[in-house]
Amino acid sequence: MTSDANHNRDAHDNDMARGNMRTAFIEAWLDLEIPVPEIQKRFHIGQKSLYRHVFVYGLPKRSLLQPAGRRQLRQMYCEDGQTVSEIATVLKCRKVEVMRALAFHGLLDKRHRPEHDEAPLAPEDESAEGTCSVEKILGQELKKVRQANGWTRRMLIQHMGAKMSIQTLASYELGTRQLSVARLFELCMPMNVLPADLITNVQRRVGANAPVRIQLDLQHVAADTRPELGPLRQWAETLLHQEKPPKTVVLEGLALGLLADLCGMPVDELEAILRSMSTHRAR
To answer: For residue 6, with 0-12 CB atoms within 10 Å meaning exposed, 13-18 middle and 19 or more buried, which class applies?
Structure first.
């Protein structure tokens, strides 16, 4: 009996070890900051063994996880309406790999359906910073702060103490997944950065191309009690509690989009509200 119990315990331990190794390998493969040679070194495997693991675990090629891969998948799946099977045939890979890559980039729910009278998806152009979406710029700012702390994505998640996959964090940093207000605060707190500072940085980067500039009195914004403006009020209060708080802030261009997302309302609706609050409409 003792021998059988030991055997069963050993088998269970081996299964646990394999499961942990599988999870760690998948997370490392999806974390594009970890180069392939580093993965081989970390798991003590050669190149053939590495790609055997990639195949067995149904992981996509890293080229599909890169921005160029996202643009290709977005064109094929979201705009051209190709099925997963058709994409897999064209790209000469398995359907599971296509599905994982679409999920990684947050594209599974973004297929264009003309019968619903949706506007076609706008083309992506990352050749200039001003054409990047607010989500992409916010993700870049998050990544800068994380790297300034000397943390990998795994380390940030550990400091957060939250249940989040490396894939999800990567999608935030790539700007392919929209951040909620709560998640933005969760990400900022362990890195000792104020969400308001990140928003200000985003505003600064996109402001050069802004057709609209609205100057706000922060005391006025902080005193507004409308529930739907809670995130905006919190942002203003955070700025006012700085050591040398500004009295006014100029909101420019796409930064309005970020604040609108945080408040859960259309950009034009928030812009109208802010115009009524503004001390000056810059031209």
So the answer is: exposed
CA distance 97 to 84: 10
Instruction: Out of 133-137, 144-148, 169-173, pick the least confident.
Output: 133-137
How far apart are the C-alpha atoms of 23 and 37, rounded to whole Å?
18
| pLDDT per residue as tens digits for the range 216-257 | 888 888 888 888 888 888 878 877 877 777 878 777 655 676
**7 has pLDDT over 60:** no
Distance CA 86, CA 77 (A): 9
**Which residues are CB-contacts of 82 (< 8 A; sequence separation ≥ 6)?**
76, 90
Q: Break the chain into its structural domains and give their ranges.
A: 9-59, 63-114, 130-282
Architecture of domain 130-282: Orthogonal Bundle (1.10)
Global pTM value: 0.44
The tokens describing 96, both together, are 């599971």
Per the structure block, which two tokens stand in for 13? 């331990």
Supply the DSSP string of the chain, one letter for each residue. -HHHHHHHHHHHHHHHHHHHHHHHHHHHHH-TTS-HHHHHHHHT--HHHHHHHHHHTTPPPHHHHSHHHHHHHIIIIIIS---HHHHHHHHTS-HHHHHHHHHHTT-TT----GGGTPPPPPPP--SSGGGS-HHHHHHHHHHHHHHHTT--HHHHHHHHT----HHHHHHHHHT-SPPPHHHHHHHHGGGT--HHHHHHHHHHHHGGG-S-EEEEEHHHHHH---GGGHHHHHHHHHHHTSSS--SEEEEETTHHHHHHHHHTS-HHHHHHHHHHH-SEEE-
Query: How many beta carbons lie within 10 A of that of residue 170, not counting itself?
Result: 22
